[in-house]
């Protein structure tokens, strides 16, 4: 059996039916390129989110409200559905700022969010309001002052009506005009702009672009704008990650005492480290990639079924040819290998073209994403996906080519020669 002769004959047979071969290859191309694009996008998304979280720096602890005795997922769902936990207070922040008790805490900020209409001259816009403490830039290291300054502890304590604008909001309201000293009206009250922030990249913290926020002192936000006395979150930084376990334990004890909680199982708060957040993101990305990979693999399966159908049609149409070759001395193995190789050529060619198109489309899509504001979006091509897609396509060629090839090989030369 001369394998090169069989390959040559297979190529001639495929060329004889160019349109049929084209559509067979197209099915594999679509499947392979889908696998490459989807899994590369999943890997890039994971890298993007991880990089943006790490940009906040190590040693960050997030204290968020939680439904007592509920799981993290169940608590999050309940809160999204409107359940409110109102036990996180300003007094908790003040206690955490006690350097004698918590010498390892460097900075603390509370957080509250809202949407309010803001007006500057003839411009009116529904802004994202972010109430924070003066330590906010020390906690969120990506929040860097561009012009002016951030508000102070004194302005927070005295309910001063001052504001710091995110870069997008600055552009929307003022454009090229210097905003420092200008006043924006919020719920009928004038807030003096004391500073603006540099762009924070494309990361959406909590699902919203932080460049769109109007930052005001948290006590002003609670008492003068929102009319509430509770926080949504407290975020703090510690001097060194080695203090994490101690910090979580001692902060938990403080909050339980403040919130009159005796049983830790009934905590109305949860403390998360940045490492845990990154770990959760990575776990979610694995599940997401598996799901997306499964969906993309379905298109490969469809392509394989298409190959089998087309090869069966080819066997039926070439019955006379098969009979003639057998009468001239071709063995069952020769016929079997010819049809198997035809299937492999289709899948290998489709796999190579699909990989090239998949990489090209992924890179083009990534460039478009970068031009839309996500300049830090990584172009992480999933080489695992490429290798897997290629070898799976080869396996599909073999698996779905075996039945038509066996059918061709089993034909009786006498019966085959009778058919025209």
Record keyword descriptors for this entry.
12 strands, alpha+beta, six-stranded mixed beta barrel, two-stranded antiparallel ribbon
Explained architecture:
This protein has helices at 3-16, 18-54, 72-80, 90-96, 136-139, 153-157, 167-174, 218-226, 244-258, 274-317, 319-327, 332-371, 383-409, 413-418, and strands spanning 60-65, 105-120, 123-132, 145-148, 162-165, 183-186, 189-197, 204-205, 208-209, 213-217, 233-238, 269-273. By secondary structure, it is α+β, with helices and mostly antiparallel strands. The protein has two domains: 3-53 and 280-418, no CATH class; 86-267, no CATH class. A six-stranded mixed β-barrel has the order 2-3-10-5-7-6. A two-stranded antiparallel ribbon has the order 8-9. α2 (18-54) packs antiparallel against α10 and α2 packs antiparallel against α13. The chain is elongated and about 100 Å long. 37% of the residues are buried.
Low-confidence stretches: none
What is the succession of H and E elements?
HHEHHEEHEHEHEEEEEHEHEHHHHH
As for the number of domains, it is 2
Q: What is the subunit organization of this protein?
A: single chain
Strand order of the largest sheet: 2-3-10-5-7-6
The helix count comes to 14
Tell me, briefly, the overall form: elongated
Q: Tell me the span between the first and last alpha carbons.
A: 27 Å
Structural class comes to alpha+beta
How much of the sequence is in beta strands? 15-25%
Helix content: 55-70%
Largest sheet: 6 strands, mixed, barrel
By DSSP, the count of extended strands is 12
Rounded average pLDDT? 79
Q: Could you tell me the radius of gyration in angstroms?
A: 32 Å
């Amino acid at each position: 059996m001369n394998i090169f002769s069989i390959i040559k004959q297979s190529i001639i047979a495929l060329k004889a039916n160019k349109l049929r071969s084209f559509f067979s290859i197209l099915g594999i191309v679509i499947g392979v390129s889908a696998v490459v694009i989807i899994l590369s996008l999943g890997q890039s998304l994971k890298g993007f989110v991880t990089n943006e979280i790490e940009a906040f720096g190590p040693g960050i602890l997030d204290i968020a409200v939680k439904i007592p005795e509920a799981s993290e997922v169940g608590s999050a769902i309940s809160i999204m559905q409107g359940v409110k936990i109102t036990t996180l207070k300003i007094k908790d922040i003040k206690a955490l700022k006690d350097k004698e008790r918590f010498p390892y805490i460097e900075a603390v900020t509370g957080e509250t969010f809202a949407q309010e209409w803001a007006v500057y001259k003839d411009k009116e816009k529904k802004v994202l309001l972010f109430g924070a403490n003066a330590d906010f830039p020390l906690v969120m290291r990506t929040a860097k002052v561009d012009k002016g300054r951030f508000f102070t502890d004194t302005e927070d304590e005295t309910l001063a009506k001052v504001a710091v604008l995110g870069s997008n909001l600055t552009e929307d309201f003022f454009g090229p005009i210097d905003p420092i000293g200008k006043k924006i009206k919020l719920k009928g009250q004038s807030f003096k702009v004391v500073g603006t922030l540099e762009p924070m990249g494309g990361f959406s913290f909590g699902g919203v672009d932080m460049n769109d926020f109007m930052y005001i002192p948290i006590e002003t936000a609670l008492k003068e704008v929102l009319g509430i006395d509770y926080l949504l979150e407290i975020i703090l930084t510690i001097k060194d990650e080695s203090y994490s376990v101690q910090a979580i334990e001692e902060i938990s004890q403080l909050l339980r005492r403040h919130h009159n909680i005796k049983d830790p199982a009934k905590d109305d708060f949860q403390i998360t480290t940045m490492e845990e957040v990154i770990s959760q993101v990575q776990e979610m990305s694995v599940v997401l990639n598996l799901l997306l990979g499964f969906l993309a693999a379905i298109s490969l399966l469809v392509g394989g079924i298409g190959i089998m159908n087309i090869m069966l049609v080819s066997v039926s149409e070439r019955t006379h040819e098969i009979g003639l070759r057998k009468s001239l001395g071709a063995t069952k193995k020769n016929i079997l290998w010819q049809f198997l190789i035809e299937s492999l050529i289709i899948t290998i060619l489709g796999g190579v073209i699909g990989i090239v198109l998949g990489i090209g489309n992924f890179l083009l899509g990534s460039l478009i994403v970068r031009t839309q504001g996500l300049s830090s979006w990584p172009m992480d091509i999933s080489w695992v996906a490429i290798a897997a897609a290629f070898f799976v396509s080869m396996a599909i060629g073999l698996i779905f080519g075996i039945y038509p090839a066996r059918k061709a090989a089993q034909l009786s030369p006498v019966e085959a020669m009778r058919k025209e």
